[in-house]
Predict the 3D structure of the following.
Amino acid sequence: MQIWEQLIADTVQLGGTLVFIKEQVPADMSQWLAPFKNSSNCDLPVVTRSVQDLLSRKFQTKSQDLIFFFESQKTFISSLNSVLQGQRILLADGSAIQGIDFAWKEASLSQWISSLKAVEAYLASAKPLHENLSTQEAPCLFLDRDDVVVRNVPYNNDPAKVELMPGAVELINQAHADGFWVALVTNQSGLGRGRISWLEYKGVHQQMLQLLAAQGCWIDECVWASFIENEAVIEGRLFASLRKPRAGMFQLVHDKLRTRMADSFMVGDSATDLIAAHSAGVKHLHLFNSEKFAKEEATLREYQKNHPQFQFHVLKNLSDLKLGN
Ligand SMILES: [Mg+2]
């Protein structure tokens, strides 16, 4: 399958929707949408929404959605930046533009129709990727990885360099004792850039889990985002919606663990950690003291000017955090 066909198939399998925008569509738009109505093998979930639906948040995209733009819609894509969570794909004959995660260059109607057929054939024989379990909702302690759970070593590929941060074990254990889920949400652009390999990343990850386990401690769910911008590496361009400050990783954890966001906590040492958590509905936001604290705090103060409802706390030591009431 072509990469865009895989993107469509993954979207459907992850429970996402194919989203089209109403305004400034090409003249033959009805022909682009026709295959969905005539689908006989399986139904691809598709909706068409207006810019206003999105801006007013009457309709909200999910991280697993795939949003299509035509070249004629280029003018307003950037205005939707802050409200779109899903991946954005441009059907165009030109080059990629800002705000777009994936360009399907030289997309033609005939290619589109045959691609949808290929996706349908694939899905007809595919198994669901995961099924949501219906369990009781519980709050979650979301943690950034580098300089929160483990000491930051840029692009670390060496398990021997993994060192737990002071107080991390106590905080995680306290969260579990208080009935919280604990989830790790970490941007790992080193994967997307090819600076570290998947096997190296896994080695470092397992070492972190082993160090925690040695002290009777565990993390319930770990999500990482390898996405990077402006790099010609296909792997690096996948799952843009996961990378903080977008809320994708939080939504994935929420879908899987049924987290109650309004009672959940985020601890991160970057402004983007807290902004992503806020977008996902996490109420209690804590900026942890690290080397870059002054810069990150300044970024958040600036962010607050346009987002007065955004509130955060400063956390000097992990052991200072009080969960629950
Ligand atoms: Mg960090």
Summary: The domain at 3-124 is CATH 3.40.50.10490 (Rossmann fold). The pocket of magnesium ion is lined by residues 144, 146-148, 269-270 (CB under 6 Å). Residues 109-124 form the longest helix (16 residues).
